[in-house]
Amino acid sequence: MDPTKTNFPRLSSPTAELKPQYDVVVVGSGYGGSIAACRIASTGKSVCLLEKGKEWLPGEFAETFIHAERDLHVHFGAQKFHTGMSMGFQYLCQF
């Protein structure tokens, strides 16, 4: 699927659009953070949900290992060898 032709709008906003003040700031968009942000926003409060990771839309996931390499982070213990993005979608460690 071509992500440029998806019917799903991006939910994230550019950092330039951040307001100088919010009623609540939630760090992390995992299950707990997402639910907390949603419930607080439903009360009418202004909420800023911060996420370090990337927003993924349907069609943006890699279909082969070659395509996944750019979104993969591998760390081999004390050798400090890294490949891919430091905040990759998949994080593999060997100690």
From TrEMBL:
InterPro entries (alphabetical): Cholesterol_Oxidase, FAD/NAD-bd_sf
Domain of life: Eukaryota
Known cofactor(s): FAD
Keyword annotations of the record: FAD, Flavoprotein, Oxidoreductase
GO molecular function: oxidoreductase activity
Xref: PANTHER family: CHOLESTEROL OXIDASE (PTHR47470), FAD-DEPENDENT OXIDOREDUCTASE 2 FAD BINDING DOMAIN-CONTAINING PROTEIN (PTHR47470:SF1)
Protein name as annotated: FAD NAD(P)-binding domain-containing
Organism: Paramuricea clavata
